[in-house]
Design goal:
Chain A: It comes from Promicromonospora citrea. Chain A: Keywords: Membrane, Transmembrane, Transmembrane helix. Chain A: Pfam families: ABC2_membrane_6. Chain A: This is ABC transporter permease. The complex is a heterodimer of chains A (267) and B (325). Chain A has 267 residues and is an all-alpha fold. Chain A has 12 helices and no strands. In chain A, helix 2 packs parallel to helix 7, helix 8 packs antiparallel against helix 9 and helix 8 packs parallel to helix 12. Chain B has 325 residues and is an alpha/beta fold. Among the domains of chain B are: 127 residues, Rossmann fold; 80 residues, Alpha-Beta Plaits, CATH 3.30.70. Chain B has 10 helices and 13 strands. In chain B, strand 8 and strand 9 form a beta hairpin. Classes of the chains: A mainly alpha (267), B alpha/beta (325). At the A-B interface, helix 1 and helix 5 of A face helix 2, strand 5 and helix 3 of B.
């Protein structure tokens, strides 16, 4: 196993070293990433300056939703965010080079880069999460800790799967990055909001097909015992791993389908 | 090692059809383009094969099917005895590929680091990595720029590094797609010498596509000419020269205008320019050498400057096409 991981480790370590060698640029990138996160947080704060409650959640509660969603997304972005560079890899021929190496193509794509500046975003998410936990009246116990960890982990898997799904679809959609980005980044944005304010159509898209509602909103609702979307049971938040599994199945299908198309096997 | 038959490459009826989408709103049916058309190909271990043809004749498509990037539309293909699609990863351990137009190196890393990542990718032991890298660095004379980031290398330096990268894991088969494109004379020469030595020492099978007749003449024993996806010629290099007369042209600038040099042994006078100040002699490199021709000319006139024009591979291919159609 260790031997098998050696290939990926070698690539990732080189990526990290190369970023570290441009220190000023790296620091600026890091600050930029933090600023973007802070601005998004400020946006929520502005909304709440006009009202006390949006979609049944207070500012403190939304902060928790934002924290879980943003941390999960930022971690996924760190690991798989560069999958959206696939069209560049295809054009530059880098993808063909992946075929010449004895590792799975997707594993090579995911480990081909590591944008450490995205750690900045993780910090914002983690801070929002910590503050959210402090401000809310959480009934601490094994269940609460478990649910929270499950939410972040499932969210991470769901968002990572979204990146892979988008990459798989890129094989078909020439210059379709705008379209897939709408789902990936739109999904991220939606995940930081209370699902109760979404219109029905969005609820279907982000609740079932791209199940980002399970990344933060539903588990946090279960955790805080707030009334969620009408007609949905309170324990739904515990189903985040099921949603994550579904997202992985969709991603695997899209990726395989896309790769078959690239190799000209039809599909 | 390769399979029992000893064939490194084996294709039967290998075909690849590309279907293009018609323009949006057009009533036209999907376009069909047959890139590779029922190709039967056998390459035996240790052979050195030049795969030539005009642009769009199907060379790159064939290579992509050989290494598992593209799926054949029909027909079968075995590379080092493996199925390129089902056994792509096993195949990758035993085949090295150099695409002249795309890099396997990491552009922002020093050459040395690219090699060590590739060693990790192919699971080479530390000792093996050291030995193999040292061998390749010495043979390809890369010592001076081993610590230079790939993006700062000249094209010639980069190509040598690419070839080394493809050979690091000691593949049985090395596929080179346009390896000398854009290289200067000296770089080409070095690369060819290295490939000849590599083959002699490790028995590596070579398959290369090229637009450079010099590559074919100096590296390949056997030549395959492909035309519209079909094999138009398969035979020894000498046979190719006989078929099309792959002659070189010696361009001579003389000190004073003189009569046409029609009596130089082993050559044919092509034409004279500027009252015989510049003369062109064609010769067959299989029968005489440039040096011998030059010596014979020097007895007749004073040579100020000279250059050698290689036969254009496009001409050779065109001749083959004409002969086989």
């Amino acid at each position: 196993m260790a031997d098998r991981l050696r290939a990926y480790r070698a690539v990732l370590a080189s990526r990290a070293r190369s970023q570290a060698s441009y220190r000023t640029s790296f620091r600026l990138d890091l600050v930029g990433a933090v600023l973007v996160g802070v601005i998004e947080l400020a946006e929520i704060w502005v909304l709440y300056s006009a009202t006390d409650e949006i979609g049944g959640l207070t500012l403190a509660q939304v902060l928790l939703v934002f924290g879980v969603a943003d941390l999960a997304f930022s971690l996924a972005d760190l690991v798989a965010g560069h999958c959206d560079k696939l069209p560049v890899y295809v054009r530059a021929g880098t993808l063909d080079v992946f075929f010449l190496r004895p590792q799975p193509i997707l594993a090579q794509l995911v480990t081909s880069d590591l944008s450490l500046r995205r750690i900045g975003r993780c910090l914002v998410g983690a801070t929002a999460l910590a503050v959210g936990l402090a401000l809310n009246d959480v009934a601490w116990g094994l269940g609460a800790v478990g649910l929270l960890m499950l939410a972040v982990l499932s969210g991470f898997v769901i968002f990572t799967a979204q990146f892979v799904t988008a990459a798989g679809l890129q094989f078909f959609l020439v210059n379709g990055a705008e379209m897939t980005n709408a789902f990936v980044y739109g999904g991220r944005y939606a995940a930081t909001q209370p699902a109760t304010v979404w219109p029905r159509a969005l609820l279907v898209v982000f609740g079932t097909i791209f199940p980002v509602a399970f990344a933060a909103y539903l588990p946090v609702s279960t955790l805080l015992g707030t009334r969620g979307v009408a007609g949905l049971p309170a324990w739904l938040g515990w189903c985040a791993p099921v949603a994550a599994l579904w997202a992985v199945v969709v991603a695997a299908a899209c990726w395989r389908w896309g790769l078959r198309h690239y190799r000209g096997a039809g599909g | 090692m390769s399979d029992v038959s000893g064939n490194v490459i084996e294709t039967e009826g290998l075909t690849r059809v590309f279907t293009g989408r018609p323009e949006r709103g057009s009533r036209l049916r999907r376009t069909r383009h047959v890139a590779v058309d029922h190709l039967d190909l056998t390459v035996v271990a240790g052979e050195s094969v030049g795969y030539i043809g005009a642009n769009g004749a199907g060379k790159s498509t064939t290579i992509k099917m050989l290494v598992g990037i593209l799926v054949p539309t029909s027909g079968s293909v075995r590379t080092v005895g493996l199925h390129p699609l089902k056994e792509r990863r096993a195949l990758a351990r035993r085949v090295g590929v150099v695409f002249g137009q795309r890099s396997q190196l990491w552009w922002d890393l020093p050459v040395r680091e690219s090699f060590s990542i590739l060693a990790a990718i192919h699971g080479l032991s530390a000792a093996d990595e050291r030995a193999r890298t040292a061998e390749l660095v010495e043979m390809l004379e890369m010592g001076a720029y081993l610590g230079t980031p790939v993006r700062q290398l000249s094209l010639g330096q980069r190509m040598r590094a690419e070839v080394a990268a493809a050979l690091l894991h000691r593949p049985e088969l090395l596929v080179l797609d346009e390896p000398t494109i854009g290289l200067d004379v000296l770089s080409k020469q070095r690369l060819r010498e290295f490939l000849v030595a590599q083959r002699r020492e490790h028995g590596t099978t070579l398959l290369l596509t090229t637009h450079d007749m010099g590559d074919v003449e100096r590296l390949c024993e056997r030549v395959l000419v492909v035309d519209h996806g079909r094999l138009a010629f398969d035979g020894m290099l000498a046979g190719l020269a006989r078929t099309v007369g792959a002659r070189r042209e010696l361009v001579l600038d003389l000190a004073t205008p003189g009569p046409d040099l029609t009596d130089v042994p082993g050559t044919e006078h092509v034409r004279s320019e500027s009252d015989g100040l510049r003369q062109r002699l064609a010769f067959d490199p299989q029968r005489t050498t440039a040096a011998r021709v030059l010596a014979a000319v020097a007895e007749r006139a004073e040579v100020v400057d000279l250059s050698i024009v290689e036969p254009d591979i496009e001409d050779v291919v065109r001749e083959i096409y004409r002969a086989t159609r």
